[in-house]
């Protein structure tokens, strides 16, 4: 009967359309695989770059910490030396109360 015939034709048309879509997807698969590989390479390069920057930052931090320790040591040393000099100067500036008793 005609209803079954039109149903079969419609199903066949749908199947042909789905087949076209599947073929189109299949033909784009190599391009997508290439794109995926490129993105994976980019990601790997970004990871390597990040690791290099992280290591460089770690080295710079260690250098700055050493520099800071050296500056702190120099500051403390200078402060102690200044204190010593100020103390010596204060001692020299004290009035000298030398009393000489003369006996006749």
Q: What gyration radius follows from the Cα positions, in whole Å?
A: 45 Å
- Based on secondary structure, the structural category is mainly alpha
Please count the helical segments: 1
**Unreliable sequence segments:** none
Order of secondary-structure elements? H
Can you give the mean pLDDT?
92
Task: Specify the biggest β-sheet.
Answer: none
Shape: rod-shaped
Q: What is the helix fraction of residues, given as a range?
A: over 70%
Strand count: 0
N- and C-termini, Cα separation: 161 Å
- The share of residues in extended strands comes to under 5%
Could you explain the architecture of this structure?
By secondary structure, the chain is mainly α. The chain is built from one helix and no strands. Keywords: Coiled coil.
Short description:
The chain has 1 helix and no strands.
Helix/strand layout:
Blueprint: H1 2-93
List keywords for this structure.
104 residues; single chain; mainly alpha; rod-shaped
